[in-house]
Amino acid sequence: MIKQLFSSAVLCLGLTFSAAVWADDKLSKLLNSQVSVAGQMTEPKFSALLKQGFKSVIVNRPDQETGNAAPVNTLREIAERSHVSVIYQPVISGKISQTDIEEFAKYYNELPKPVLLICRSGSRSTALFQQAQHQGLLHE
Predict the structure, then answer these.
(1) What Pfam families does the record tag this protein with (predicted)?
(2) Is the pTM above the cut of 0.85?
């Protein structure tokens, strides 16, 4: 029982820390000096993010996913006004394949930096980045 309580406390502390990291920068989370990730996107949020100097965007959220307020065509129109490249690489949450990872790495390696990754919560884009990095597929 004490072990379960300790595990629960550690989990809560971890979730609190994660929320604090996101709260410090409400728009995006820095993964390294060349890549950041952002969750739920809106047109005003995307416009504000582009003002931070991103040169490329990879959108991993499928347009048809429930709750998607800003489809890729809308984001692309906004980005074009700022001369920012947008790649649409939809990945189904919880179903990242090796092909997805390799395709992500190809885009990441070819795009101008810094890059903004977008999905619903930031988790699937972060997972793609970390898997590609772990496999040595990213040229950094």
Answers:
(1) BLH_phosphatase (PF04273)
(2) no
